[in-house]
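## retry 2 of 3
previous attempt timed out at serialization; input unchanged, resubmitting
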Amino acid sequence: MPRRRLVLLSSLLAVALLLLWRREEVGFLWQVHVQAPSAPPRLPRLPTALREIASGFDQVTDLQAAPAPLPAHWLVVVEKQGTAWWLDRKTARRKVLIRAEVLTASEQGLLGLAFDPEFATNRLAWTNSVVRIGEGDFTAIDAWRLPESPTPGGLPDPPAVHFQRALSIAQPYVNHNAGQLAFGPDGMLYVGLGDGGSGGDPHDHGQNPASLLGKMLRIDVRPVARGGRYAVPADNPFVGKPGHAPEVWALGLRNPWRYSFDSLGRLIVADVGQDRREEISLACKGCNLGWRRKEGRACFEPAQGCELAGLREPFWQGRHPDHISVTGGYVYEGRAIPALAGKYVFGDFAVRHLWAVDVPPDHDPGREAAVYWLGGHDGLVTTFGRDRDGELLVGDFLGRIWQLVAAP
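## retry succeeded, writing output
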């Protein structure tokens, strides 16, 4: 059997297993994937298209542009099963960047990668994965060191070597691991963590200020590059506050898949909902995004009469079944699609469309932002990427990489 067919069959089997796990939690999610793309939503249309630039990968979970001084046409493609690949967009050649031993049940795996802001001097890349430590499952934040110089005229070889584990966090269930990493404009590492899994946040991690689960963490990993431990920035909002984990920057998250900074320094978080609403929010220092007291803009626990004071509202919420499992993207800051300038582009793992939304200049809890339809596709969108020119890439769980382009 050809390798590509084997990869496709294994990917479909993994999707089926994931959906079987989630069917109790997300109603009829398992049915969505056997249907053709649904009819265009009744939204203003911004014509775009997806141009395939690579295929044959296995269960893509993240896309990253190579940092300077590496060539701008190099990308990194992360696979759930534990491999991250260099991809040369000009030649289609690929080489292994990282091979990691990870757990892969349900939503576990190698889930995110970020290059260190000081990569040019320390050659470090960071990963977020789920691993076994002793008898338990843990989210692990690891540093990997790349070779000092790539093979002349080619992609880096040999692969990166594990340098140091910065942080590990126990995971009680096999879902809601989130998995992304992002360095902010302040040079700190932001680690988005889901609520620990199962359904409905049974341990109320999202609202427990002492738990790292269901939070956005902010840590300083510069000491790790020198062989030390991560540091907690002194200006984190809960430093010195009894009963609060000092690493926490924001709380009230369910499963942030994914988040990104724009050129204004705003952190935009897409949070997968339970069974009624998906949401995208402007996160902020010390803010509470609400889970599990609320889902989107509606009460969740309790279902009525929940205390909403002090909770930050999303600027976009999508209701099921029009939206099922949001996949966050980026504010478009490229030049190839002028109509998208300044808009946040996002997708959905289970609904085969792409959208864009206006990001409010300031948090405005009284209104929801305008939404635009970008077009349909035939994939399972797990992640977005952004190249060094600001153009957007889309990763498909079935192994394809697309670039978002203006419609002809």
